[in-house]
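Trying the structure run again after the queue cleared.
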Amino acid sequence: MVFLTKEEYVIGSQENSDYMYNIIKDVLEQIGPRGSCTEEEKKSAEFFSKELSSFCDSVYTERFETYPQLSVHSWIPRSAFFISLSVLLFVIFYNLSSLIISLISTLLLFFNLFLVYKHYLRSEMWGAKIFFFYKKKQSQNVIGIIKPKEEIKKRVIFASHLDSAQRFNIAQYFREGYIYIIVGTILSIFFFLIIYLVQLVYSILEIFLVGINTEGISIILNWIILIFLPGCTIFIFLLEIISVSVNKKVREKILYGAISDLTRNNVILMISVIIYQLVINLVLFKFLFTNPTLVKTIGLLFLNSIQFLIGMTYFSSKKAVPGALDNLSACAIVACIGKILNDWREKYPNLYPKNTEVILAMFGCEEVGVKGAEAFAEKHSNEYNKIDTSCIALDTIGDPELLNIFTREGSTGIDFHPDVYNLLARCAKENDVNYRISVQPWVSGGTDGSGLVKKGLKKTAAFVGLKYSDYLYYYHTDRDNLNLINKERRPCNDYGTKWNNRNVRCALENALKICLCYIQKKDLEK
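Done. Tokens:
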């Protein structure tokens, strides 16, 4: 076997570029958004099963069940409920027993944090053990297998996901405000916990020490909230202004360059919140410091956090987004790998893999905790690990300037395999594709790669073509649609200037080249 040359086969051709664009277009026009465990996700599985049947030696569908209602996105509104309930109980029953009510409020928040940890960082549907009224729903994975010319000695799996996300309302309507709501929510929960724990400690001390009270600590906490929460709002707004004012190189050091523009709704939100916080704090100032108590302090914190609670309550929608980039872009690449291998088998047999089996996997339910990837790995890892099997998870391929090859997922703490990500980097370099080997930022979520690793397919890595400066302008919103992808093919040095005119076709072609190069290099390994 020899490496392909431009004279033999051009991977980044007009034909292959059109093929990937048309796959995305057809799915969006014929099916549309594809929420996890929905009929539309099932139809997209049927669509790709039919498509892969043209190229693969065998194609099959594997069904599994999960709880899409218990994804981390659905836990964010529930977090607002737990916080509000803890405050309500604390205020109403404080005079009956500050010890018991502060303990209950503390446990409520810790319980909520535990559930968020289990569902987001561990992708475990732990809530199903408690909320028994939720019923499992069915999803599916589509698997296409392409056999090598001779004996199977190695295996490469390319993974993408069929489903699209629930819409993030905060990102949809406020864009950059998404960061403020997320940061503010984390800070608010932290402050609520501090107040509950302080009251709990003082209530215990009152049993042994006569005359102890919370007046002094209430004054201190009042001042911290009065200064810190409005200060946080002003700081983030100033950070947004600075981010859009500096050059690209400096901007990338501020929140990964995620704030590249200031939109009207976000400016209105930030200015309104700053005015509201300053006014409400001035109105309450005298009341707070007259016979200060932690009940007053918790009320102050609640009123300064109301925007975060509202944001959490309406954080996501039941409506799914189109998901053109996340993740039909990767599905189109995976399908095109099958098309090219079929071309090689028929017309360029010297390029076709000799001993490497290629599996094209399209998973369901990535957006609710990589459940399709977990189901696939759990079922096949023992069998697949008998020979050299490597997995590559592709997600959101939209940046023509830079490909991110991940060594680790920051959110889940899952480590990827150096053999895989280093070989991907070599392929990127040899194909003149700009790349960066890095840890995936925790704020950008996870990939199917984590599900594959957790359930036994350890030799896995992920690469993502998500441009962080574009992240807030389409990610998990209705703007992630076909309009993001240039209808006409453009030269790869024409990157585009903004999030809505990127040369996405070039990004798709770059990723495709790397995947085919990976297959060739693995096939030549001894």
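Residues 14-67+137-167+320-524 form a domain with the Aminopeptidase fold (CATH 3.40.630.10). Worth checking whether this holds up in the mutant runs.
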